[in-house]
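Meet our chain:
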Amino acid sequence: MTHSNASVFRNKGNEGGGFTLILLGFSEYPELQLPLFLGFLTIYMVTVLGKLGMVLIIKISPRLHTPMYFFLSHLSFVDFCYSTVVTPKLLENLVVEDRTISFTGCIMQFFFACTFVVTETFLLSVMAYDRFVAVCKPLHYTTAMSQKLCSLLVCGTYSWSIACSFIYTYFLLTLSFCQNNVINNFVCEHADIVALSCSHPYISQEMVLVSATFSEISSLMIILTSYVFTFITVMRMPSTGGRHKAFSTCASHLTAITILHGTILFLYCVPDSKSSWLMVKVCSLFYTVVIPMLNPLIYSLRNKEVFCQEVNQY
């Protein structure tokens, strides 16, 4: 499938629901379609089993009914939803010749993918604050991280992500689209949809830039501030064993943060990364497909409680 055989379409405002787009995905590598399908299918199955297993274990085990695992269950749920929004369409396009997606379907995929990735970003920030309270104020942890506060923090992350997604989607739908309907990616990202527009996307791009920058900076500031105070507190501990235990409780969370934010910052903040479509696809693939699989493995292997519960299930 090439740009030359892409059908021409026109859309004014938000009348694009009846038009069809083409997701090229990895079609330029026909000999890799089957291996990629099998690889991504395996990753998706591991993701689904890992996420749902994590949620189930946390739900049924009274020992895991703590704020940390409450947030972890929501993180697992968000990762499962995020992967499910993207991966099935990716798998479909690897085994069929018709790689089309409706304009409405593309917009909906973008909306939900945006919602879940922003939610995950702020959930990781909330979890950083939770670790700060647990390490720096252990005697007040139960009262400081009450069930009501935990629920409010989670609801806040979902609310903010949905609001951001509505804003991004609204300004996308104010654009006009014409001629080209080929997206050189496997997922409907904002930049890919804007690239199809024949109207000036300045307002849409600026809104996304401002909102995305605010979300990224604010979440990173929460994380960095929380861990600076956590690190200071840990280094003041007289016991080496106490320091080791405190660091071990934060290790899995720091690993997840580094992988997610590192990939996003590399993709959107390093100019050279945008010069290669293959690099963009690989980075997008990493944070949309691979990271959701890694998170449950990171947390279950780094936390004895979860690992033991998983072993007992079998």
Notes: Residues 82 and 117 are 7 Å apart (CA to CA).
